[in-house]
Amino acid sequence: MILMNDFRAEPAELRSAMLGAVSRVFESGWFVLGREVEAFEKAWAAECGVAFGVGVGNGMDAIEIALRSLGIGPGDEVITTAMTAFATVLAIIRTGATPVLADIDQQTALMSIESARRCITPQTRAIVLVHLYGQIRKMDAWTELCTARGILLVEDCAQAHLASINGKMAGSFGAVGAFSFYPTKNLGAAGDAGMLVSNGETVVRRAATLRNYGQSVRYHHPELGVNSRLDEIQAAILGERLKWLSQFTVRRRKIADAYFKGIDNPLIECPAAPESSQAHVYHLFVVNCAQRDKLQAHLQKHQVQTHIHYPIPIHRQEPCLKMARDPLGLANSECHAATCLSIPCHPQMSDVDVDTVIAALNLFSGD
């Protein structure tokens, strides 16, 4: 079976380095908010081209703490996409703010800027822009919109580690960038982990307070925070995995290029090509097919694992049925949810694996 992710196939050198990092933490005797976290915060902020990083427990907390650090809460509206992981919207809800759902662009599955404009009201304080599947697009247009309307831009970079446009990295365009290091991410820990990055010193200082119960200095709590701290073991592991990220990203792009060139089936639609070669890191390679369920069963028969990201758009989730949305509706999100299918695109795939996936896709007849 060609898997969506295959951690057991990772290089022995990387596994040895991670085990060594874990051993280093145990030898240090320090497990929370120590040198490993500080070192990884600096390293990842530097990769993102920003001044500061604050390690937190997971990607959802990174979004919540980012919004709270920007002063967003009850009475505020935050626009985001209906096509995203539930955590994006849940983070907004947890701040006390009101999510407003915009539709997606049909070709890219990213939030439509035209739809977002229709969602803006006098209560709009922020846009959480999700770099879905690992791609960033139209960032000048997004930053111009937010600047013109006095809206804060927060980037959900959970799937976009190292994506860039003209040398500017995902996470550096808005007021704050929020990253997840869930194990399956392009840069993944051996458990939950996250970080927010920013050039705003005041925002970062507040984020560091909020992640630690709202504690500014030991036993002084000027506000109510949360318990969301990146631990030393995960930070140490991420520091080792970071050394391999560029190499792994190159491999993902080569696999995606092979898919673009090799998939030739009128029943299967490949994603839109990225704005530039560096603008997409292919956390996921997602095709669309009107007979998605049949295609998934066909690929399973040919020993190719697939997943669906995401089968239920946010506004169809039970807690969100009455959630505010684009007044023209969310038709593109619904269509994408009904037809999208993620195929394997990870750096441990061999050329033979890639060719096998392409051949299986091209064999699909819909019968």
TrEMBL record:
Keywords: Pyridoxal phosphate. CDD domains: AHBA_syn. GO terms for molecular function: pyridoxal phosphate binding; transaminase activity. The modification N6-(pyridoxal phosphate)lysine is found at residue 185. InterPro entries: DegT/StrS_aminotransferase (IPR000653), PyrdxlP-dep_Trfase (IPR015424), PyrdxlP-dep_Trfase_major (IPR015421), PyrdxlP-dep_Trfase_small (IPR015422). The keyword rRNA-binding does not apply. GO terms for biological process: polysaccharide biosynthetic process. The active site is at residue 185. PANTHER family: 3-OXO-GLUCOSE-6-PHOSPHATE:GLUTAMATE AMINOTRANSFERASE, TRANSAMINASE. Belongs to the DegT/DnrJ/EryC1 family. This is Pyridoxal-5'-phosphate-dependent protein. It comes from Methylomonas koyamae.
